[in-house]
């Protein structure tokens, strides 16, 4: 995972989304410009934000998947060593991955270790970085990205994650109505969206972020300083007020 450039994401993976905050942000999102429309102007998440908050590379090869000639089941067996019986259309359940590859045997061979690492990376991509709205499955096309660890290490993962988040934000903004709430119906890395908001709009952030001697402001990636924080879990109207009316000019330009 270090070779693949994904290790910095591991401590951030447990962070979960706050539906109220995400809904409020989507209401302010403009798909035409991929920016948040705020009282003081337009702002957005940048590649530098992604690199600073998550440690993912923003320079490198484009994250592109070539669909294989072999069938999905054969590819799954080749790269993971196992395949589920209900593998339809190349989609695999994340729960199956986590149950099947729960604990690496102490006597595992290098080949088995790589298979477990690929399974973890696949669940990381499907459940965190490139999660879809179902939140419970992932397409095996992502498995091809970690077939060769050195090739994976040359990918600009940060750019792919950000563009995917942009697309999902746009979809959500177009589907929302004035009275609707996203709830859990959101694709993309929601925690990245929240980390950016907490850093840029401090008055929306949790009350118990780690500061001072416990962790420095220069921690890498910067997002780990929010790990012990408990999200407020307020409704979207609370956050809309915070982002639009209350202290609406409080925006941290540089993090």
Automatic annotation (TrEMBL):
<dbReference type="InterPro" id="IPR044824">
    <property type="entry name" value="MAIN-like"/>
</dbReference>
<dbReference type="InterPro" id="IPR019557">
    <property type="entry name" value="AminoTfrase-like_pln_mobile"/>
</dbReference>
<dbReference type="GO" id="GO:0010073">
    <property type="term" value="P:meristem maintenance"/>
</dbReference>
<feature type="domain" description="Aminotransferase-like plant mobile">
    <location>
        <begin position="15"/>
        <end position="246"/>
    </location>
</feature>
<protein>
    <recommendedName>
        <fullName>Aminotransferase-like plant mobile domain-containing protein</fullName>
    </recommendedName>
</protein>
<dbReference type="Pfam" id="PF10536">
    <property type="entry name" value="PMD"/>
</dbReference>
């Amino acid at each position: 995972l270090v070779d693949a450039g994904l290790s910095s994401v591991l401590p951030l993976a447990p962070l979960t989304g706050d539906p109220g905050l995400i809904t409020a942000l989507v209401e302010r999102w403009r798909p035409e410009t991929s920016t948040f429309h705020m009282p003081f102007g337009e702002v957005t998440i940048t590649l530098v934000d992604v690199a600073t908050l998550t440690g993912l590379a923003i320079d490198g090869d484009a994250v592109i998947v070539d669909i294989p000639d072999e069938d999905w089941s054969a590819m799954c067996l080749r790269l993971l060593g196992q395949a589920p019986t209900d593998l339809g259309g190349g989609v695999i359940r994340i729960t199956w991955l986590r149950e099947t590859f729960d604990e690496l045997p102490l006597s595992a061979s290098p080949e088995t270790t790589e298979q477990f690492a690929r399974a973890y990376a696949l669940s990381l991509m499907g459940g965190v970085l490139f999660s879809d709205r179902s939140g419970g499955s992932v397409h095996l096309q992502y498995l091809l990205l970690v077939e060769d660890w050195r090739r994976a290490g040359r990918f600009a993962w940060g750019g792919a994650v950000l563009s995917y988040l942009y697309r999902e934000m746009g979809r959500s903004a177009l589907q929302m109505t004035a009275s609707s709430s996203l709830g859990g119906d959101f694709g993309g890395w929601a925690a990245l969206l929240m980390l950016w908001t907490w850093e840029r709009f401090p008055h929306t952030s949790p009350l118990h972020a780690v500061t001072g001697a416990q962790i420095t402001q220069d921690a890498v990636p910067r997002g780990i300083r929010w790990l012990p924080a408990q999200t407020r879990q307020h409704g979207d109207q609370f956050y809309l007020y915070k982002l639009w009316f209350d202290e609406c000019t409080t925006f941290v330009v540089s993090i």
